C-alpha cells in the first residue's frame, strides 16, 4: 500500500502545528467502474480516503482545497468548539474506511460550525456516502439524502462551481440522487433541467447518460404510479 502514497508536509492554519499527511500518487490509480452519481471505484486504493487533512494537534479538518481558507471568525469558533475538546489523534498514516469515515465527519462538523457553503458540505456528505457504499453500509442512504438537500439548496442559492461541478453536472447529479432515493418524479425534472441547459452540448457523455437516466426514471415513475393505482 505504501508505494501508492507519499507524504505531504502541511501547516495547520489554526494552531500552526506542522504535520505530514498521506496523498495518493495518481499515476497508480486504475478505475474499475463509475457509478451514475459520479462515484468511482478504483482497483487498489481509494483516493477520497485522503482528501481530508486533519491536524493531529488541534483537530482542525477540511478538504485539501479549503484547508488554508480559514477566517479570523472561523478560528475563534474552532478554538472554542473543536480545539479545546480535542484528544490528539494522528490520521496522517494509511487510512482504512473507519479512519476515512472519521475524518469526513470531522470535516463536516468543522464546516457546519464555520457555516461553510452548503455546496461544500454537501460534497463532503456525498463522498462519505460513497465510502459507506464501498462497505455495503446502509448509512450510505442517509448521507446521500444530506448531500441531496444541501446540493439542491446550493444550486438555487450559491455561485458555481459547486462541489467542483458546473450547473449542468450538478443538475444531473441532483436528478440522480433523487432517483436513487426513490423520487423518480423529481429526478425527471432535474435530468430535464440538465438536458435543457445550452451548455450540455459541451458535455457529450453526460448528455447521453442524462437521457438514459431520464428514460429510466420516467419508467420508474410510471411503475410507481401504476402500483399506487392498483393498491
UniProtKB/TrEMBL annotation:
Q: What is the superkingdom listed in this entry's lineage?
A: Bacteria
Cross-referenced InterPro entries, in alphabetical order? DUF2225 (IPR018708), TPR-like_helical_dom_sf (IPR011990)
Q: What Pfam family is a match for this entry?
A: DUF2225
- What is the name of the protein in this document? DUF2225 domain-containing protein
Organism for this UniProt entry:
Serpentinicella alkaliphila
